[in-house]
């Protein structure tokens, strides 16, 4: 399915929820306590940047605001943000998101806005101070949701939500591990679509789609005799303790890892699949906020304190700048590239995104030390310079083939 088709499918799911009387809270930062919103009897829906949206930000935002923020704000300016009862903004994640939430409050005073402030955690994200801070912030958010929408927190609804989200993550993790071993077992575009569908409308139906896909892949891998190997990869990725011995991948190279921040996996898939003689089977794994990082957060134990469990789960997101220090993120990338036998890393940088711009040189340095080649590709939600991006990626792939990839 083309990128615009995926977007329309997601928008349709959101409209269907609204038509059935469900109140939807749109959220922007992917590491949001979905279980909390569901426990209040509401539906969380990850807001997406939409290609082709008319401009509308110019009267309120600087032209150098990041392309993701400009797109989201233009959607609201043009009344295309969807049927939302409220919007949850992150605080203390990046300046652009903080600024647009401030402007939003002034320009659209009738919108019900919520905020969740994240801690700055250096080194170990499991420190008591970071968890305690976020725990109390989530409690405050729960109080605000109850007050704004007259919907109290339900422990039974929370337990149901935990079971559903955990089932989604377990299935999605297996799919990621299967692609790491054999990328052609399922198209990256399909994985991205499944994950985005759940994040747009976390329902029993969207979980079933992911779970059924996982079962089909599991049966196929069992027949081919590599199921055990895939399960070992999944366990290593979950524990974030990657063995010293690299895996033995199936299929032909090159094997590409995609890195970046608030970048849509569907957009990357559409971009790669648009290059002649190239398919998204080259993408072994992504380190994107809307992909790998959301899937590989820890599951919640519904028998423990709900708010502390949600905080600990959010802070376990791998490679996330607001959760881990730079040294830890770079080390994980290096280990992942070695363990999965990655030939090249494509660093996608959201246009005018300071976190992406500052992170890229460190990623490049890390990959050089691991003898893995890199290329940087600026990207925006509109894919406004698509031809140039395709040429850059194609040239990078050709250079890997000519140079024989990385030293294995």
Distance between the ends? 35 Å
Number of helices: 15
Largest sheet: 4 strands, parallel
N-to-C SSE string, H for helix and E for strand:
HEHEHEHEHHHHHEHEHHHEHEH
The helix-and-strand class reads alpha/beta
Question: Helical percent range?
Answer: 40-55%
Overview in brief:
With 408 residues, the chain is an alpha/beta fold. It is built from 15 helices and 8 strands. The radius of gyration is 20 Å and the shape is globular.
Describe the structure.
The protein has 408 residues and is α/β, with parallel strands linked by helices. It has a domain at 3-154: 3-Layer(aba) Sandwich (Rossmann fold). The chain has 15 helices and eight strands. A four-stranded parallel β-sheet has the order 2-1-3-4. Helix 6 packs antiparallel against helix 7. The protein is globular. The model is unreliable at 1-9 (pLDDT under 50).
Q: Main traits of this protein?
A:
408 residues, alpha/beta, Rossmann fold, four-stranded parallel sheet, 8 strands, 52% helix, globular, disordered N terminus
Give the topology.
Blueprint: H1 3-19, E1 24-27, H2 34-39, E2 43-46, H3 67-77, E3 86-91, H4 95-107, E4 113-117, H5 128-149, H6 155-181, H7 188-200, H8 204-224, H9 227-239, E5 256-260, H10 265-273, E6 283-287, H11 292-295, H12 306-314, H13 326-339, E7 344-350, H14 354-369, E8 373-379, H15 386-403
Helix pairs in contact: 1-7, 5-12, 6-7, 6-8, 6-9, 7-8, 7-10, 13-14
